[in-house]
Write a structure and sequence with these properties.
Largest sheet: 7 strands, parallel
Shape: globular
Structural class: alpha/beta
CATH class of one domain: Alpha Beta
CATH topology of one domain: Rossmann fold
Length: about 325
Amino acid sequence: MKVLVTGGSGFIGTRLVSELIEAGHEATIFDKAPSHRHPSLVVRGDVRNPEQLTEAVRGKDAVFHLAAEHRDDVTPVSLYEEVNVGGAANLTKAMNQTGCRRLIFTSTVAVYPLNASNPTEDREPRPFNRYGESKLGAEKVFREWIANRPDASLTILRPCVVFGERNRGNVYNLLHQISRGRFVMVGNGRNRKSMAYVGNIAPFLISRLAAGPGAYLFNYADKPDLTTNELIEAAHRSLGNGSVLAQFRIPYPIGLLGGYVFDVMAKVTGKKYPVSSIRIRKFCADTTVSTDRIEKAGFRRPYTLAEGIARMIRSEFLSGDQSAPLFESAGG
């Protein structure tokens, strides 16, 4: 198939494009940024520009829509609406104009509230931040599109936090602190986290090219869900440190107060800090989702969660190879 990957220069997009090519598809990247891995495949553009987007979609059999504003500290906050919701509206118009009938969209588990107790896809969304609100808004745009296109196929995927080689997101920051012996636990560490390895999510996205007409919705995570304590232990084992728990812990209320202090500092100075109240809340919350629907669909993950963590640690902390491009965080 001829496919377009919006946001294809990013972390998930780069892995997805590589695996699309390996599977024999003809991939084009639409992104504001160049691709370090696939520079010749890039069409530079912005999803806020309908003309650029329409030309990129023209002649394509399917679109993977990954382009988004996803950081917790995006400024101005209006970018969430402009890029994530406005970009979705522009994409549906582009697909209608060009006749493209197959769309795979990466949304987020941030459409669910924190501590939602393993929600299924049928759980009523209640986003806990502006990012989640904007992704839910994009979902609504795409659902309206598919309602008027009975011949089209729409897959909405709600991934949890996605990690992997060369990613510089929250999971990397945690593992980096552990590897340097500088990790400080906030809270008791008994909260559970759903996580997704990029080497699993890319093939699942590709598998949706075979979906028939209709609308499909999936949560995505690689089970089993680990507690923060278990994740720390798994990291130490992969690093060759044995089983070691965090020695220094900050109670959650104190950690959250510190997050609010950094929020104020960010507003006063205009700088972005690695600590914020929303990041403390997310770190200490249960952020798990049900994946029963994916299991029933029969998808077989190439890697276990433990293998994904070990592969990332070998790549980032044990191999000494720092030549590949780096990517910011992705997912919920």
